[in-house]
Amino acid sequence: MRILHISDTHIGGASYFNKEVLEGILGETRKHKYDLVIHSGDVTQGGRRQEFEQARKILSRINIPLIALAGNHDARSGGLCLFEKYIGPLDGVREIGDAVIIHVNSAFEDSDQGRVGMVKFDMMRKALNDYSEKKIKIIVLHHHTIPIPMAGRERNVLTNAGDILDLLLKEDVDLVLSGHRHYPNIYQIENTVFINAGTASAKKTRYGDVNSYNIIEINERIRKVKTVRLDGKVQGFSFLRRKKRIFSDFGEREFRAVHIANTLISESRTFLKRNFINAVDTIKKLNPDLLIHCGGIVREGIAGDYEAAVSYMEKFDIPVVYTPAGRDMNYLGYYLFPTYFGSIDQRYSNESILFQGVCSAQYDSHEGIVGPSQRKLLLKKLETPEETKAVFLHHNVLPIPHSREKGLLEDSGDLLREIVDAEIDLVLTGTSSHPFAVQIGETIVVNANSLSSVYQRSVFGNSFNIIDIYEGAIAVFEVNSLWGRRRLLGIWERNKKAD
Predict the structure, then answer these.
(1) Which domain holds residue 169?
(2) Which of 214, 344, 357, 454 has the most CB atoms in a 10 Å sphere around its CB?
């Protein structure tokens, strides 16, 4: 199956729309064989009737099947009604041969934000279930599920991106196509390939980029994507379906780390002392080499909470590295954290394994940011000879189920892209108080639940993660803080880098 994927055409006046560029791209369908054109939203600039009339005239020249979505610009000025009148349905399911394409509107009136509400979420889940026997499953949304680079501080992932990501991975969706931020980007997460399109014909591009489109070829075994920029540059990517493996022998265990977050130690009732003490006892019996605390050490950055935290954390009696959350830095926390727990960018190395911390917390704010200078410094710190490398920070780099995107780093798209490109083995985070672990590219991203606070989101209860690094695999388990019950979050083949 061959797909021409375009997005963000912004059809309208000549000051923001390049008609000749779009007509040139659509000419691809007459020069080469395609089975389908997918337009992932922002068909028009402002959702006005004249723009939709112009768009219908241009798009009607496409002589093969077309699926077009509404974007946030189409939703302006009451444009969603006009979209249905001039372009087509806002949501739908299309079968083409062995493939099913499910397109879901994520735009709503007069907002740049995106969401898939409960009704549409259930519709998407039901459609995936109804067409589960299809060999190729494709989801199309305007807003991206995964943060993308070069997006500035407006992350604009779907507000419930974590729940959607969880669904897409569980249903083993092949492709997820989106647009919105005018910058192309491609990731493979587990077996799902997420493809973000740049703008096909808007004059507003990002960071000096040019207009672009994607050519996608897909079958049961492989997904090929070419991003074609109109300055002549072409980037090609191929993604084989990862085979499900049953590991019978991991080899010897080389390292065991325990990963915790959001202890929220204090004298208040929100701190669950019994959960903490039981977790300490369980962790000691596991005999880990290192404990990583990904922030939320104290309930608030005040002296009493920090004094209590020192007393409780000493009970572990094993090496510990810390990174702060915003609440750890609030009030006097900016002074108390380094006084009691050390530098804000901590590091552990045993010559073969490196854990490098990076502070994402800001004073008096729950928002997180690393920033370009700190990202550059982090990558420099990771230029070391250790075979296995991990980064730990408080804020999320991927959306987490049962939470909203506010826990994401402000520059999550840029940091994630740089870490994945550098093939860092592990990223450990601690926001949103829900356990989650996936592989993106060759990088395993793991989020920790709250160890000992009433504020947690998992039906499994408060918990911590065990990360076992073997010769041939990395295994991640979640362990209940109170009772010590264990469940597997994932096992992935070890990323063995070439010498």
Answers:
(1) 2-240
(2) 357
